[in-house]
Structures
1.
Amino acid sequence: NLPIAATNGIDNSPLQIFVKAKKKINDIFGEIEDYVKDTVDYMHEVQKEDHIVSQEIVRQIEEFVHKVHSIREVLARDHMKVAFFGRTSNGKSSVINAMLRDKILPSGIGHTTNCFLQVEGSTTEDPYLTLEGSNEQRAVESVGQLAHALCEEKLSESEMVRVHWPKNRCLLLRDDVVFVDSPGVDVTPNLDEWIDKHCLDADVFVLVANAESTLMVTEKNFFHKVSTKLSKPNIFILNNRWDASASEPEYLDQVRRQHQERAIDFLVKELGVCTPKEAEERIFFISAKEVLQARLAEQGHTALTPLTDGFQTRYFEFQDFERKFEECISKSAVKTKFEQHSQRGKFIANNLKELLEDLYNEASKLKEEKLYQRKELTDKINYTEQQLMIITQEMKKKIQNMVEDVEQRVSKALTE
Ligand code: GTP
Ligand code: MG
């Protein structure tokens, strides 16, 4: 029951770069695991028969089984993570809902996000919540109930609530994208704690700015902090509420140019995270509210509301953002997550190879020694045989001589 529009082009989604790479690297680790297990079985056999393999070597090889297994466990949990930041009410929760094509997160008046909310795919039929430090699954029936549950909990703003949403309801979640929503950066003095707790493993950051005002010091300050802790973070800037510009079309181009220039300056000159050309692909003018409304209507959940001027252009720009975002997050996650795994995989394979080579050399040496010992033994036997032959021949000769001597003497005695 995936949204019709979302099912188009499943296979050419840039997220597939990550999905396919994950499958491939998992298959490779599957092979390594089989290979290591076979080696352990073989070692146990060899150990029974002979004293070639020491207990220590077998232990070392057995350890690889655990290592490969734990890499596979981490790999299975690997995902692409995007975190949304910005001032209160700029539309962070609305952007996430628009991307997920559903009203998952509470937004709007009275629904201020008051803690970190992570939306991730689940294989269950129904959505549920888990709170930090607990595995207890709490049912979520509706957005209203989710918002209510979040208020009831009296959570601290840096705490994380995980929303497990059925994968079969959303392509992005199916493809292992995890969304992190945050309270407004203007409501907390704890930005450092936020970053340390929730941001260090994010592949992409989205700054949701308000197109009706200019980038604020608090928003900039947050990203300055992020870029001291992470080298070249991937940052997108969404100038949200761009639908407001429809009411003043005469200033539209001018306002857009001004926002664009300031945002480029921020990414390029202030943060130094990208080139001016790259920055142009990171800044978008959108309306999350409109996109969400259109997508809900498309799925028949709500009636289509009258469209504001320029809706189509803003909708296209949102789709353009989604595509660039998918490309960026997919490539970045492959690099940061799988590069480490493949390094460790190579390390394990090399270590195993070295151990087996040492073992092979040891065995060859042993074989040579045995052959040498056998040769020495054969030489000894040959020598003894020869000696025996010589001795026997001499004995024969002596006996012959003796017999001849006796014969002579006897015949001499007889003639005398
Ligand atoms: P906090 O969680 O309180 O920090 O806010 P938020 O950044 O998550 O904003 P939220 O998504 O809750 O949106 C705040 C209000 O702005 C809601 O009433 C939204 O409907 C509205 N809103 C969001 N995006 C847009 C937009 O593009 N245009 C307009 N006109 N309103 C929007
Ligand atoms: Mg919110």
2.
Amino acid sequence: MLWRAQLIACAYRYDQVPPHHLPEVVMVGRSNVGKSSLINAMIGQRLAKVSKTPGKTRSVNFFEVQGDPPFVLVDLPGYGFAARSGGELELWRRLIERYFRSSRVSLVLQLVDFRHGFLKNDRQMEEYLAGLQIPVGVVFTKLDKVSGSRRKSALDAYVKEGFRCSIGPFLVSSETKEGLGDLKSGLSLWLKE
Ligand code: GDP
């Protein structure tokens, strides 16, 4: 199942958010969680920038995806970065808050590093989304970094700690492509409902 996609907008301010009539699926996660790599792996193209320096993506990027059904995938800047000025952080916070309150969002995919599970700012994001009653799909990333024998116990431990999740959790690796098919079909099913 190949999804073609094109970048339709990069927004630094809310008035740059593009008008369209498709459902929006938003990806959020800590900087360096593997969000850009996952976007590229899902759409089989190098559209999102992969970086070794956390916190590089500052704009909100909108990709129109020719999936089944079509939708708009929204790439939010990663959270949990420190090297950013107060003024810039404030602008970012205002854009994100306004965006999430706009009722455009069908689903948020919350990316969490499978090696670490939910860290403090992942919990803050979880709580924030719960407050807005936005449905969330949890995607654990970098599955290949956890050996096969440790995967079940890691997942069991995260499930036991608890997290809010309308679909998933999905376990994926952009490196080996494991779990990508399940994520894409889960997403398609959700969007068709
Ligand atoms: P972002 O900041 O969340 O967009 O993260 P990136 O996609 O830029 O990835 C951050 C780093 O993690 C890069 O060095 C990637 O090569 C690496 N990475 C991302 N996904 C995976 C994965 O599934 N497996 C492994 N081993 N490395 C990954």
